[in-house]
Amino acid sequence: MEGGAARSVEVIAIDGPAGSGKSTTAQGVARALGFTHVESGAWYRAAALLALRRGLASESTVDGPAVAHAFETCLMEAAEARGTCQIRLDGEDVSAALRSPEVAALVSRVAAEPAVRHVVTERLRSLAGGLGLVMDGRDIGSVVFPEARLKVFLDASVEERARRRSAGDGRDVAPATLDRRDALDRGRAVAPLAVAPDAELIVADDLTLPQQVELVVRLYHEALTQRRA
Description:
Blueprint: E1 11-15, H1 22-33, E2 36-39, H2 40-53, H3 64-73, E3 76-81, E4 84-89, E5 92-93, H4 101-111, H5 114-125, E6 133-137, H6 140-144, E7 150-155, H7 158-169, H8 175-187, E8 200-203, H9 209-228
Parallel strand pairs: 1-6, 1-7, 2-6, 7-8
Antiparallel strand pairs: 3-4, 4-5
Helix pairs in contact: 1-9, 2-3, 2-4, 2-5, 3-5, 7-8
C-alpha cells in the first residue's frame, strides 16, 4: 500500500537524533500497544548492504541512482518477529549483516542520496496496511508519515546521548562524535532532521526508558481521545 496508506492505519512516528533512545523507546511502545515496531534505519542499512554487495559504492563515492534502482527492484521482504520488522534481501535474513562495520561506515552516505531516500520512503509507506506501526527515524513524522496519529520528537543533551550510546554500544562515544552526526543530519539537503510542527517534544535527560515508553503511550491514548471528541 503506497503513499496515502497512513490515512487508514494507526502510526506512531518517533523521530530524534542519534543516541536519544528512539529505537528502544519505540520497541517498548510497540510492545505495550500490540503494534509492530519498524526501525527505519534498518532500511537504509539494507540499501547500504546492497550497494556494497553490488559494487555500487566505495570509500569515496556512492552511485545514488544505481543504489536506488537496485534497492527498488531487489526482492525484499519485511516480516514481523517478536514485535519487530526484520528484513530479508533476496531470501536471505540480513539482520546480522546490517550491523557490520562495513555497513555502518557507509550508511550515512547512502542515506544522504536523494534517490535512495525516495525509494526507502516509498517502501516504508508500503508497510502501512494492517496492524498499527511504531516507526522510528529522523524524518518519519515530517516526511514518511505526515498523517501519523501521533508524532514524537525525542531529544536529550548531547552529553546524555553520548552516555546512552556508550552504554548501548559497549564502547566510549564522545559527545563531539554525536555533534558531527547532528550537523550532518540537520544539514542534509533532503529530509533533514527536524521537529515536525505538530510533534510532541520530549526532552529525555531526566527520564528513564520505562518513563519514556509510558509517556509516549499516554500521549497516544490522549490523541485517540481527541479524535473521538
